[in-house]
Amino acid sequence: MQNILITGGSGLIGQRITALLEAQGKSVAWLSRSKQSQKSFIWDIEKESIDPEAMEWADAIIHLAGAGVADKRWTEERKKLILESRTKSTQLIYKAVAAATNQPDTLISASAVGVYGFNTYTDLMEESSPEGNDFLANVVKAWEAEVKKIESLHLRTVILRIGIVLDEHGGALGEMLKPPVAAPLGNGDQWMSWIHIEDLAKMFVFALEKTTLQGVFNAVSPNPATNFRLTQEAARAKGKPFIGIGVPAFLLRLILGEMAVMVLGGNRVSSSKIQKSGFEYEFPMLIPALKDIFHR
């Protein structure tokens, strides 16, 4: 039986990956700040402490931990937490793996398409495309740099740059459909590279099982959509009214502050590399993906 250690396991993505792995008969444990109903090992990122048994137990690590980028306004304190929850947690994994007698052989780490910059307009971004230089891009660059250090410990390392995750129970979709009437943000022309949560969870499992896979891959669907179209189709699938007049950019900046760049900008991101590696999507098209989410 393969032992899989997950950081950030209690989150939306972590719970779905856990369910898929356990359905396959794999043993899953979470790295957590407190004991969970799920099998878990304790770690404390601030105190730089981790149960040494975690790495001895694990055959592979799935690293998802990181403070939510859209959960709260970006004060300087919040921005520091967004960065350090990713870099420090990864540094702690590095130290624990380096000290382990029986090292895991694989690391699959989350990352984000924000690495390309907050707005890349209509350009199709591939894994080799230029990186951005705004706050989120710099966070992702620092995060990935720490992940790549773990690769030097001779672990097979895969980085999945995640786009906008579509799920009924949280994430971007829940926020978009929270108001009584759905409307595009800004002019609505910005690209949203989305992925159904089921495909994302399966992609992590695919990366775990395909032992020849290594390097950086975009974790998005093959068919990105504009903010206007995604909002319109999501409202239709949910049965909510939709108004085609966008929420003005100045109002979003007033409400969200610096964080407004996340919704006013966008990325059109390619999934070609992961598809060429053999991954097959269950929900490559937007409308069937939304219908599945809202009519399960």
Describe the structure.
Strand 5, helix 3 (76-99) and strand 6 form a beta-alpha-beta unit. With 296 residues, the protein is α/β, with parallel strands linked by helices. The chain has a single domain, classed as NAD(P)-binding Rossmann-like Domain (Rossmann fold). The chain contains eleven helices and 14 strands. It has an eight-stranded mixed sheet with strand order 4-3-2-1-5-6-8-12, sandwiched between helices. Helices cover 39% and strands 19% of the residues. The protein has helices spanning 12-23, 53-57, 76-99, 135-151, 171-176, 197-209, 227-238, 249-256, 261-264, 272-276, 286-294; strands at residues 3-7, 27-32, 40-44, 49-50, 60-63, 106-112, 124-125, 156-162, 164-166, 191-192, 194-196, 215-219, 225-226, 268-269.
